[in-house]
Amino acid sequence: MAGIVDFSVNENSLAIVKEMMARSRELGIIVRKLANGTTLIDAGVEAPGGLRPGLMVAKAALGGLAEVEVSPVPYADDLVLPTVKVSTDFPVISLIV
Questions:
Q1: Taking CA atoms, which of 12, 24, 59, 90 is between 20 and 30 Å from 97?
Q2: Of 6, 11, 97, which is closest to residue 58 (Cα–Cα)?
């Protein structure tokens, strides 16, 4: 059927999470296995975290279907703030993940 895209948002997200786990030291995140078997990724509560792991968390939360970036945006003459920009071709699917 034309126009149908075949992908798995869960698989996309899992690939990002696995990359984060493999690069945990470089990214400044902590990966823990809890007693109940849950894997916990701390990207900034007790771990140093940072911009790169934060962007990866956002991308994983969007099912890997969006690009996420941070850039400075002037809001007034003397006020420039970091702003998150999200771009996707799949807004409905990526936002219900």
A1: 24
A2: 97
Residue type, 12: N
Q: How many CB atoms lie within 10 A of CB 96?
A: 8
Nearest to 23 by CA among 45, 41, 35: 41
Count of other CB atoms within 10 angstroms of residue 16: 18
Q: Is 50 helix (H, G, I), strand (E, B) or coil?
A: coil
pLDDT one-digit tens code per residue, 78-90: 999 999 999 999 9
- Residue 85 host element (H or E): strand 79-88
CA distance 79 to 73: 8
Task: Record the pTM.
Answer: 0.85
- Nearest residue to 10 via CA among 65, 49, 74: 65
Place of tokens 């099912």: 63
**Is pLDDT of 1 > 50?**
no
